[in-house]
Design goal:
By secondary structure, the protein is α+β, with helices and mostly antiparallel strands. 32% of the residues lie in helices and 25% in strands.
Length: 274
């Protein structure tokens, strides 16, 4: 690992002022960043630690939504009584408890690894991130964070400060993933489904280079969630998504997973607890 400077700002404005140059990156949980540094994939000149900025915490909004600080650990979100049931269930098989004790919500989103479980689920739930920069704050849907494999749309002098989730209300949600090894392994495919009455919002992860909304499948399911439509929606989803083959499965294999897991995720969502 190459030598680097570690800065520990105590305010958001100070942290933003330290970012922007080549070789400078923010440090939240560091679970992915440190592995990249050890492998020599990334050699920063400075890391800007966000640990003293007080960006953690989970707050319930009056309307039933959630506000989650960017430095909130995945484990804290998993264990919070305020967390949605689908988030708790998803987090239990995201990596392992040692990683979840350290990894943060903001870091997991900014890392932009398409195999992450949270981005497609949060996108399907309608989550938005608040991003701070020198010019102030801006808000964006979670899916707008991603430009491609390990590429996000954040500027180098911007930071995610928190995440906002609309109330679950009467919506029902599910996230299913298929792994080729242990249950907590990186998925070959992740399928997130949120049902609002007979309306479905569906996002695909891992099989594509970023969280991908399956619009054609959603349109088919507007006419009903019966088995025939689920089969048609699975076929449409397999055709509309630009599939990425990798060590977890070929493109053809993942297309078949889409056909199977879309129907399974819809059934799971229909039976989910509010």
């Amino acid at each position: 690992m190459s030598p680097f400077e570690l800065a520990e700002p105590r305010s958001l404005s100070e942290a933003l002022s330290l970012l922007g140059d080549d070789g400078v990156r923010p440090l939240s949980g560091g679970t992915a960043l440190m592995l990249m540094m050890k492998a020599g994939v990334f050699r920063p000149t400075r890391l800007v630690s966000l640990g003293k900025l007080k960006l953690e915490g989970i707050e319930a909004a009056r309307d039933g939504g959630l506000r989650i600080g960017a430095m909130t650990t995945l484990r804290a979100l998993e264990r919070s009584e305020r967390s949605f049931p689908v988030l708790k269930k998803t987090l239990r098989t995201l990596a392992n408890v040692r990683v979840r004790n350290v990894a943060t919500v903001g870091g997991a989103l900014a890392h932009a690894d398409p195999h992450m479980d949270l981005p497609p689920l949060l996108a399907a739930l309608g989550a938005r991130v608040t991003i701070a920069g020198p010019g102030g704050e801006r808000s964006a849907p979670v899916e707008a964070l991603y430009a491609g494999y390990l590429e996000n749309t954040l500027k180098r002098n911007e930071l995610i400060t928190h995440l906002e989730l609309p109330p679950l209300g009467k919506r029902r949600a599910a996230y299913l993933k298929c792994t080729t090894r242990s249950a907590d392994d990186w998925p070959a495919l992740g399928m997130a489904v949120v049902l609002d009455g007979e309306e479905a919002q569906i996002f695909l992860g891992a099989a594509t280079d970023r969280p991908t909304r399956l619009v054609a499948a959603e349109k088919i399911l507007k006419s009903g969630l019966d088995e025939k439509n689920l089969g048609r929606a699975g076929e449409a989803a397999a055709e509309e998504a630009r599939i990425e083959g990798d060590l977890h499965g070929s493109a053809a294999y993942k297309k078949q997973l889409i056909r199977v897991y879309l129907a399974r995720a819809v059934h799971e969502a229909r039976n989910a607890i509010h």
